[in-house]
Write a structure and sequence with these properties.
With about 450 residues, this protein is α/β, with parallel strands linked by helices. It contains 17 helices and 17 strands. This is Heme chaperone HemW.
Length: about 450
């Protein structure tokens, strides 16, 4: 039986599982547990630190991240003040024994901050939280317009090991179609500045499935990216989500989610991009991530942001303990986001010592999460590691799901004994496979969430 044909009977683009459970499964925590109690029994010798900056110069048409356009005078300073207050409260809750093994600045666009503000952000991570940015991997997200020489000099000087640049397309018409106003000349200039800054790992984000994009223009963007010899490349399928710029357009402009022709076009572009990068010697790490030969691992892997022991600061950041995932309220609508940001900057330090929104993690959810964050990686998962953690076998815990995946040709029959690994077609269908591992309770909570 033709695996490609079999796999394509399932909608391949359902949901990008970048975190499980998603924030739409979180709910207000009536008890508002104290962070000191939540973290008391957690291992704290190798924590991950994430600082969230909720500002962008523009909001791309496909973006449903927690970010607002611009910042009125004084708001960035007020936000950094609140971030500093939160850092003090969280650090006190963690205790002096807390140590950080990785750090990341995300958003939004962290480089929306000016150079002096980036210095202060780094000080909050180092002096406020105790993270040695020069000694641990530090990943920072940027846009071409904000990747200025002075900002990059700050980041390089403070130990940034990885800079991720959201390019999306080197074709100006495609960038406009995705409501990302930029010119290729400006993108190329930003890439030149990043290379001059000497940050060890450059990641370039590209998107396939943009309205008007063809296989030729897609290869053109890939060639343009490869000319910079990036250590990493991420290839993202375009999604049209509610409350985004593209989502507000009428159906068919661009194609609506679930359109079989659009699904097939995205799959075709994905395969073309994957094959082109593999031919250039890149290693496929996941459906989205490709790493150049010899490039160091710097904490930018897909599953890194899901690891237990992550401490998030900022109004859009998540934190993960083994028992509870928590954050502030979530929104996509710009007005709602502004309200949450305004609320965040007005809070006293005491407010940051408790968790307010989140989801308690049962044993079943922990198993699902471990399987998700492992099997969606190209290297797969050793069943022995799963057994060591949970005392059971994944085939015992998820017999129906794994049998279904095998029947579709999504599991690699040639994987080493004891290793659960996706086939190339399984990786191509990661955005269909992942959601099938969601628990009924999480599905119900996400469906009932009032997206705002």
């Amino acid at each position: 039986m033709n695996i490609s044909t079999l796999g394509s009977t399932v909608r391949p683009y359902q949901s990008y599982v970048y975190a499980y459970p998603h924030k739409t499964a979180y709910r207000p925590l009536v008890e508002r547990p104290a962070l000191r109690e939540l973290w008391a029994a957690e291992p704290k010798d190798a924590l991950s630190l994430y600082l969230h900056i909720p500002f962008c110069e523009v909001r791309c048409g496909f973006c449903n991240l927690f970010t607002r356009i611009g910042a009125p005078e004084g708001l960035v300073t007020a936000y950094l003040d609140a971030l500093e207050r939160q850092a003090g409260a969280v650090r006190e809750a963690l205790g002096e024994e807390a140590r950080f093994a990785a750090a990341a600045f995300g958003g939004g666009t962290p480089t929306f901050l000016e150079a002096a503000e980036l210095e202060r952000l780094c000080d909050i991570a180092e002096k406020g939280m105790g993270a040695d940015l020069a000694a641990v991997p530090l990943s920072v997200e940027a846009s071409p317009a904000t990747a200025t020489a002075d900002r990059l000099a700050v980041l390089a000087g403070r130990g940034t090991t990885r800079l991720s640049l959201g390019v999306q397309s080197f074709v100006d018409a495609e960038a406009r179609s995705a409501v990302r106003p930029q010119r290729r000349a400006d993108v190329e200039a930003a890439l030149g500045r990043i290379r001059e800054a000497g940050i060890p790992v450059l990641n370039i984000d590209l998107i396939y499935g943009i309205d008007g994009q063809t296989e030729d223009t897609w290869r053109h963007s890939l060639d343009a990216a490869l000319a910079w010899r990036p250590e990493e490349l991420y290839l993202y399928p375009l999604y049209v989500r509610p409350l985004t710029g593209l989502g507000r357009k009428e159906a068919g402009e661009p194609e609506a989610e679930g359109d079989p022709e659009w699904d097939e076009r995205r799959l075709r572009l994905y395969r073309a991009g994957r094959d082109q990068l593999l031919a250039h010697g890149y290693e496929q790490v996941s459906m989205r991530m490709f790493r150049a030969p010899g490039a160091p691992a710097t904490g930018g892997e897909d599953h890194a942001c899901q690891t237990d022991g992550m401490v998030g600061l900022g109004c859009g950041a998540r934190s993960y303990t083994s028992a509870l995932h928590y954050s502030f309220d979530y929104a996509v609508d710009m007005r709602e986001i502004r309200g949450i940001v305004d609320d965040y900057v007005s809070r006293p330090a005491a407010d940051f010592a408790r968790a307010e929104h989140g989801r308690w993690m049962t044993g079943d959810e922990a198993r699902r999460r471990h399987l998700l964050q492992s099997v969606l990686q190209a290297e797969g998962m050793a069943a022995a590691e799963y057994r060591a953690r949970f005392g059971t076998d994944p085939a015992e815990d998820f017999p129906a799901e794994l049998a279904r995946f095998a029947g579709r040709g999504w599991l690699d029959p040639d994987a080493a004994p004891g290793r659960l690994r996706l086939s190339p077609e399984g990786l191509a269908h990661s955005d269909a496979l992942g959601p099938e591992l969601f628990s009924p309770a999480v599905r119900a909570a996400m469906a009932a969430y009032d997206l705002k």
